[in-house]
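User: Quick sanity check before I run a bigger batch. Here is a single chain. Can you write out its predicted 3D structure?
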Amino acid sequence: MISKEHKKHTSLVRPVSGNFGRNEWAILGAPCINIKLLANEVINALSPQYKCAYADTSHNDEVTLPPGRLAGGAVLEYTDQLNYHQFNHSTALKPINFKQQFADDDMVLVNGNHQPAKAQVVIIYNNKSASLQKRVAQLTNVELILLADNVDDVFDFIKEAIPNWQQLPICRLEETDKIIAFFEAKMQQAKPILNGLVLAGGQSIRMGHDKGALNWYGKEQQYYMADILKELCEDVFISCRPEQKQKIDTTYNTLTDTFIGLGPFGAILSAFRENPNSAWLVVACDLPLLDANTLQYLIANRNPSAIATAYENAHDGFPEPLITIWEPKSYPILLAFLAQGYSCPRKVLINSDIALLKAENTDALTNVNTPEDFEKIKRQIHQKIAST
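Assistant: Done. Predicted structure follows.
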């Protein structure tokens, strides 16, 4: 007999998601053509800023035969159509497949006449009253009500199903500007909060002693960086190895590695395992010239639609992964790279959709790895302090 206290699986914090993605709305209650036209209007308006997706179901009267090689028994066919790319599957997709496929998208609009979603937009359309009534059970989180032509009031069964319907925004279906403004506001509200992570769990082999404990400005660098991030982030954590935790000042939050032996890559994954719904501003502790202005510029130019916002290294043009804002959508991508045997965060950035910035002060990106680097930067800092 298994004890009630026994847990078979490790309890993990799950990313916020619906059937398809983090931000999804099923539009239902009108003919499918009206839903598609409305989705087109919204997507056209928001696509310059957000990655938009659409989900629907084909309902042809005739049975559609499998295309191409699927008819011959293939389970998957990929076609590069040059201006778009097409995958055909012969096997049915499961819920987790949809979440993987839509993971990079910021918002998903769904034809709710056929598939449900986490939030709903209900269209009051006289000729679709009976169809909508069949789907009342799907109205779990209605956020917008639209009145079609020749409709002046909400159906009585909708009023009964949605007790707070009068508190919801209501506008007419032809008021496209108001509808687009609704989605714009929702996407702004959905912007992930920003937490800070100071990487202090390295072995510091080349330096010969802990780089996080180096004192450049009157306190250990790991605390100095954490203090700067506290002014810019919601919460700040010092990332460390489990055996380091007892040595860190208890007035600072710590986050120990749960992905062991992967260096900074493991620290970033450990942060997302702790909170997969937050964006993480990751900063290494070996950047003594990094200042608040450089971090503020990174935050001000953050692009939540990309998987990350990073600085370009002035010497080689590659992104700097350890002065980077990693968005929640980067978590499954990092895990996917790990599954393929890669544990380099820079490789993830190089091969992904990111916002890449040029630093106004490139010296701020200088890292210190050796005793020679230490002496050089120490003299530079002392000269700067003396001159001011």
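Residues 194-387 form a domain with the Spore Coat Polysaccharide Biosynthesis Protein SpsA; Chain A fold (CATH 3.90.550.10).

User: Great, the batch can go ahead then.
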